Amino acid sequence: MLHLTYFWEDQSNMESEKLAEYQIMAQIVNHMLQQPELDLDEAVNIFCKLSCNAHAIVDIAMEPLGIGLYPVMSVINHSCLPNAILVFEGKLAVLRALAPVEKGDEVLISYIDLSRTTRHRQDDLNGKYHFTCTCPRCSKFAEIDDQILDALRCKEGECNGFFVTKDRSYSRDQKLECNKCGLVKTSEAERSAKGIIDRLCDKGKSDFFSDNFQEAVSTFKRAEEAALDLFHPSSFSVMMVRNLLTKLYTTIGDTRAALESCRLMTPVHERLLQTLNPVRGMHYLTRGMLEWVEGNRGDGRNYLVRAGDILLLTHGTNFPLVKELLINLAKDHAELAKKQEEGPSGS
């Protein structure tokens, strides 16, 4: 761990709650190992270093599988407009360029989910990595339109505004002000609203894993209604619930309902994510397959091609899913060309 000293010199930027959590973890480790000589301060320092330098190991859909410490990768800085991406082939961390990187250019990756507005990305970065991002995308922090996409609705009387911060710099516990009526709330009100949706989603997942699929559908629909009632229709909260609904409908074989839910997410992905983002690529893959199954071959082919273009660049052909997709697209292209050569009569 000594070589990580350069990445974490002190604990001054870490919140007291997080430090207290690491102190408890150090005490637990000490109790489990039964080593009185263990330096608790050093153990806390190691946990701090891990929290700032470890990477989430994710699958091709960017869903977390665990964490890993990759010292070389830990020197790469974050940007919300990255020019590279870190992907994992098993335990192997692979850095892939998303755009041409010239000599002297800094290689930048994203540490977080980028399908959020500036304030929520800053929350994620401060909570997990203890810094405030100053990349070009985050320079939009004071833009109200950017915040509204993930903001809490104002329900004061007939007001239809959204709670945003008018500060020009980030702080974790900012005051939120309705952009229409001027009512002020704390960010705790926003976290409380998200808690309502999280509890419904947790229940829906529990229903699903208990094979109570109809109850799961009902619960997730309630979560979708709550998210639409509390937040902007293009918010991350609404998209998260619709993503779960799409997966649930697909699992139980209701591809029509899955496609309807999936279609609602497409404009949100395209608005919030860079073109070369694997989450966007996986969304196109899902929509393409659903369109195809529902008999919309043209639309299905279009979205599958777009998925292939993204995932080939972000992940390459070492991933079986990408390799299979490209093979199937090549077969479909060959069959389409053959039909065009044969003409309408097939002769």
SSE ordering: HHEEEEEEHHEEEHHHHHHH
Shape: globular
**Biggest pleated-sheet summary:** 3 strands, antiparallel
Rounded to an integer, what's the Rg over CA atoms? 23 Å
Helix content: 40-55%
Determine and state the CATH class of the domain at 2-109: Mainly Beta
Q: Remind me, CATH topology of the domain at 2-109?
A: Beta-clip-like
Please mark out the parts with pLDDT under 50 across 5 or more consecutive residues, or reply none: 1-10
Quote the average pLDDT: 86
The helix count comes to 11
Domain SET: 1-112
Protein name: Histone-lysine N-methyltransferase ASHR1 isoform 2
InterPro entries: H3K4_H4K5_MeTrfase (IPR050869), SET_dom (IPR001214), SET_dom_sf (IPR046341), TPR-like_helical_dom_sf (IPR011990)
Organism: Theobroma cacao (Cacao)
Features:
347 residues, mainly alpha, Beta-clip-like, 3-stranded antiparallel sheet, 11 helices, Histone-lysine N-methyltransferase ASHR1 isoform 2
Fold and architecture overview:
The protein has 347 residues and is mainly α. 52% of the residues lie in helices and 10% in strands. α5 (187-209) runs antiparallel to α6 (213-230). The longest helix has 23 residues, at 187-209. The chain has helices spanning 16-33, 40-53, 118-129, 144-148, 187-209, 213-230, 236-251, 255-272, 278-293, 297-315, 320-342, and strands at 55-58, 64-68, 77-78, 84-89, 92-97, 108-109, 163-164, 175-178, 184-186. The chain contains eleven helices and nine strands. Among the domains are: 2-109, Beta-clip-like; 134-187, no CATH class. The chain has a three-stranded antiparallel β-sheet with strand order 7-8-9. A two-stranded antiparallel ribbon has the order 1-2. Strands 3-6 form a two-stranded parallel sheet. The model is unreliable at 1-10 (pLDDT under 50). It comes from Theobroma cacao. Residues 1-112 form the SET domain.
